[in-house]
Design brief:
It contains 16 helices and 16 strands. With about 475 residues, the protein is α/β, with parallel strands linked by helices. The chain has two domains: about 45 residues; about 350 residues, Aldolase class I (TIM Barrel), CATH 3.20.20. The strands form two sheets. Strands 5, 6, 7, 8, 9, 10, 11, 12, 13, 14, 15 and 16 form a twelve-stranded mixed beta sheet that branches. It has a four-stranded antiparallel beta sheet with strand order 1-2-3-4. Strand 11 and strand 12 form a beta hairpin. Helix 2 runs parallel beside helix 3. The protein binds iron/sulfur cluster (3 copies). One iron/sulfur cluster (SF4) binds next to helix 15.
Length: about 475
Amino acid sequence: MSFSAVPVAGRRKKDRPEIFLELTRSICPVCRRVVDADVLTRENKVFMHKFCPEHGWFDSLLSSDLGYYRAGQRFNKPGTIPLSFAAQVEKGCPEDCGLCPEHKQHTCLGLIEITDACNLQCPTCLAGSGGKNFLSLEQVKKMLELLVVCEGSPEVVQISGGEPTLHPQLFEIITAARDMGIKSVQLNTNGVRIAEDDAFLEELARLKPSIYLQFDGFTPEVYRRLRGTDLADLKLKAIDRLAGHGFNIVLAATVAKGVNDDQAGRIAELAVNHKNVRGVMFQPVAYTGRHSGCDPMNRTTLPDVAAALEKQTGGLLVKEDFIPIPCPYPTCFSVTYVYRGGGEITTLPRLVNVEDYLDYFKNRFITDLSPLTREALEGLWSACATPGSEEVGSNFACCCGFSPESLKELEQDIIMIGIHALMDAHTFDLKRARKCCIHQVLPEGKMVPLCVYNNLRRGCAHG
Ligand code: SF4
Ligand code: SF4
Ligand code: SF4
């Protein structure tokens, strides 16, 4: 018997152009079956290389900066076990979501989509919303109860959609979440109703949830491309009207290469200079839902946003200010805090050695780190942190040695700037999903990591 071997073109041994970093599991972007995936590096970039037996080979860019990707791995802390699990291990990950007992992190932030209806039709919508379904108040209360059963005292719930301001019982839902002891209720909105409906805004102002306002930039063209229509003036009007009623606002900005990545700095500066804006969450665009056509090798990644902010803010922010949040997998999320008080603007990592405190592989050997400072930094570098909250203010004060008396002013002078790299079918990495701390609470009584939900279940959220 003779063996067969396929000859290599040129028949000369040579090195591969890339270095193999690790093996993980991903999904086929076409049929969504779970497949093995290599994580490789070439020319200082990190990318995923995977094969589906039915649909062939796929490559996608994960990070445009190998150094940032590798350095980030240090910021990874032990997960917390929730009080209850709503699913059991039966078929294996990711079919058992969730959360099943093998999940590596509890719920920092619970998301509830109360409707799939929307007053916009964004071409970038993560799940292609545009339905007519509204959860009943009773359904939402049951979902909130599930969160309480699993978490005890949940820190944060985000009410989302579709467009949640279209729900006829939105106010009752916010009240129900508060009555169950959930510390922070966030409303994830496109701002259309806030900009246009006086009576609605008056009523919302009585409850004052934190507002996560979709805000992608300043020019009509950006909105036409990302949202299908010119919303540039409407967004600024929504901010003014929210500020007039004393809301805390966090801007949620989708960042797409060649569309609005040149406006990231201006968005951050708006946050730093506006008295009611307490933060920005940048989201490099994820190609899920309605937004599926893309070149997966030519896209904005997390370090690209950090680099754009450094370039466009004239040193107000630098790449090194952005330190990964250690509760989910560290390549998911990076954050910094800007302090704008006392006539100066600086960032927290320039005041405190945040890296030493949050590097969980190194910090156990450094004996002069204060446990109180570490606890405060863990509170700030968390998906639970709600910009503008008293807790963020007191954690910041603790790190920097500010007196408790200065707290009220301090709360208004701290701005969170984050970059959250949501995954799509091209970049999906099951090891990140297994440590996800942002969970979609479903009406059928399950909690599913957001990126599993967006890519493997029918999903709908502001993209
Ligand atoms: S992603 Fe988490 S909850 Fe879902 S099956 Fe895997 S380990 Fe379980
Ligand atoms: S939602 Fe996705 S990107 Fe965010 S923490 Fe979870 S797995 Fe990571
Ligand atoms: S991204 Fe948000 S605003 Fe746009 S269609 Fe989807 S749910 Fe509506």
